Amino acid sequence: MSKSQEYIKGRGAQSNVPNRFDANSHEFRDDFLNYCAAEGDDFQESKTTIIDTFPKTIVNKVESPDVGMSYSLNPYQGCEHGCIYCYARNSHEYWGFSPGLDFEQKILVKQNAVELLEKKLRSKNWQAAPIVLSGNTDCYQPVEKRLEITRKLLQTFLKYRHPVGIITKNSLVLRDLDILEELHKDRLVHVNISITSLKEETRRILEPRTASIKKRLETVENLSAKGIPVNVMMAPIIPSVNSHEIMPLVKEIANRGALSVGYTIVRLNGAIGTIFTDWINKTMPDRASKVLHQIESVHGGSLNDSRFGTRMKGEGEFADQVKQQFKIARNLYLKDRERPTLNCGLHEIYKDGQMKLF
């Protein structure tokens, strides 16, 4: 295997694919790669770079009808977790970066996120509706441990008694258990934990810089023990990679106290098709062709389907089998469990940061 073909450990994407908006692109020539190999040099930067940004708004209206949320908030753009299948990779192109390695290595930090959220929640025109942290990239990715922007956002939601949802695959969420418990007292928080596999080997290559499966299961258990509503997302289902784990995974998360489970079937939109194809040929060469063909079979012969209503769940025999397995698993392990509805009724009287007496 040549230098350009070697698997980059600790990263999902294995290269920087061209940005579709750039007029020019670059590639590594063999003579350059051979020189780097001879000198013992890395042919591309492997460190993570943090880039400060100061946007004008922070709460995004979600227009897609099949996402399951109305508003989202992302304190970070790009994600060091490096999940190979991540649909958010394409959004990095709007910032002038590649959806490949750049997405994992160049993390944009919204330094004024807290101020913008507070301004939004205090607006006279704003009416409370659940805002989900991490609609695009994980709010508990590694840089959060140092910057604590997500923690400050949660404190702001608590101050204004505003409902919030969280999506993460990082056990760092437990650091903020004190705030989550306070939010839960007024039915103001839901937590969604993403768990795609019970096998650590699969997790390491699929989601290289995420919390271990053991840590994530413990997170479900610890949050549930405090009464905080937890939904687990088995997303995405990838044929012949984790599709055989549906029943055991739902059983395990039910035993840990989760109230519900959701799923999506992988779709490789935009540049992700190229990135994923390169990755699977390096990590699972023995079944790469089979996996890619099975993905195509649920999306009408393509690696991607952009149609609302079908893009998340797929079509065809495989998609139907997945749907039936989840139906059976829910009946077996999660029957009669239900997540409480988030409370949107308190915010108006806390709109100025303290309870209005009159």
UniProtKB/TrEMBL annotation:
Which keywords label this protein?
Iron, Iron-sulfur, Metal-binding
Organism phylogeny: Bacteria, Pseudomonadati, Bacteroidota, Flavobacteriia, Flavobacteriales
> What domain of life is recorded for the organism?
Bacteria
- Which intervals hold domain Radical SAM core? 65-311
Name the PANTHER family for this protein. SLR0285 PROTEIN (PTHR43432)
Which GO terms fall under molecular function for this chain's record?
catalytic activity; iron-sulfur cluster binding; metal ion binding
Q: Does the keyword Metal-binding apply?
A: yes
Q: Which organism is it from?
A: Zunongwangia atlantica 22II14-10F7
What name has this protein been given in UniProt? Answer: Radical SAM superfamily protein
Pfam families (alphabetical): Radical_SAM (PF04055)
